[in-house]
Amino acid sequence: MAKKKKKRAKSPTAERASISRKKRSSDGAPKTAATKAPVKKRPGRTAGSDGVNKSAEIRDMLKSRPELKPAVIASLLQQRGVEVTAQYVSMIKSTLKKRSRRSSIASSDKVISLRQLAEVRRLVDKVGGVDQLERILDLIRELQ
């Protein structure tokens, strides 16, 4: 009677080695950028073969008619020969909203920098306190 060899469980390093072997091309060489499939470009990323920048077209349409829904904008652009989906229009629209919110927060008069606070603090110390500075500001308002 011949003894049968018991199969041992693969060690973690052996499993990693078998996985790395699977990532090789059919001839055994490691896959490189030349052997990988080409990356598909995302829609609207750059001007296509017809020279149309889809994102710019969407932004122009949103500026001229902001009340329109993404599906309507997509159909209008498709009539003009620009192939876009309602989902893509919606993404561009939400990006514009985020940008406008960010810029309005940054340019708001309510934003006070640390440098401005430090200058006002020095001025308060220089004139003798907050009450004295308030009196000075009241006098300036009356003169205007």
How is this structure best described in words?
It is a single chain. With 144 residues, this protein is an all-alpha fold. Among the domains are: 53 residues; 30 residues, no CATH class. The chain is 56% helix and 0% strand. Helix 2 packs across helix 4 and helix 3 crosses helix 4.
List the helices and strands and how they pair.
Elements: H1 12-22, H2 54-64, H3 70-79, H4 86-106, H5 114-127, H6 130-143
Q: Beta-strand percentage? A: under 5%
Estimate the global geometry from the Cα principal axes.
flat
Radius of gyration: 33 Å
Fraction of helical residues: 55-70%
Could you name the ranges where pLDDT drops below 50 across 5 or more consecutive residues? none
Question: Helix/strand-derived class?
Answer: mainly alpha
Largest sheet: none
Our measurement of the CA-to-CA distance between the termini, rounded to an integer number of angstroms, reads: 113 Å
**How many helical stretches?**
6
Q: Compute the number of strand runs.
A: 0
Average pLDDT metric: 77
Compressed to H and E, one letter per element, the order equals HHHHHH
